[in-house]
Design brief:
Helix 6 runs antiparallel to helix 7. A hairpin with a 5-residue loop joins strand 4 and strand 5. The strands form 2 sheets. Strands 1, 2, 3, 4, 5, 6 and 7 form a 7-stranded mixed sheet that branches. Strands 8-9 form a two-stranded antiparallel sheet. Helices cover 45% and strands 18% of the residues. With 230 residues, it is α+β, with helices and mostly antiparallel strands. The N and C termini lie far apart (38 Å).
Length: 230
Amino acid sequence: TGSLLAAMATAGVFRLGGTVVGTHAFRLYEGELGLRYRFDDLAQTGDLDIVSLERLSLVLDDQADPPVEQVLADFAFEPVPTLDPGPAWRWRQSKSAALVEFLTPAFGEEGLRPLAALGVSAQALHHLNYLIAEPIPAAVLYRSGVLVQIPRPERFAIHKLIVAARREARDRVKAEKDRRQARFPIVALLEDRPDDLQDAYQDAMSRGPRWQERIATTLRLMPDVAAQLG
């Protein structure tokens, strides 16, 4: 994963707005928040999720070089077939079954959107615009270091509460992982950055009843966290 992230950084993926999310972002909060995870908390995965804004990609007069498809091909990733025409949004590595997925915020219907600057498509999902607002830099510990960007930890944590509710009905194992990945930064932020956490929480709660319902659904399974968030 480190070598793949390094190649993507060289190609300009993160300079052009790409933000690492999911478990790989979660792992990088150890340094950001001064946490030490237990080994079993670090759900080891080779899967890599990158979010970028479709609108940003359209206005940038710049492109990844070499193209993202070439970077992925160099690491033996092949596009996962879909029924949709156009560039792929998901690649699978033939030797390990690891996945790389490109995502983008949905403004309206979810579906596939082009990321012109990266030369790929992305799956548009709701709530991602909230997640990647004002991302922060992070260094991946690989060789001399790889500079990427990740979501702000308070937004990552609240977003995980929402994602856990969406997954609960269809994949309880992943929903439980989402709750664990929400709990650790929340506990750390309540101690060190409570104002940042409350701002992110109130921002999410102000976005309408569906957001409120999903957050409440997850917090009912985390009563200790719910009590501290108020």
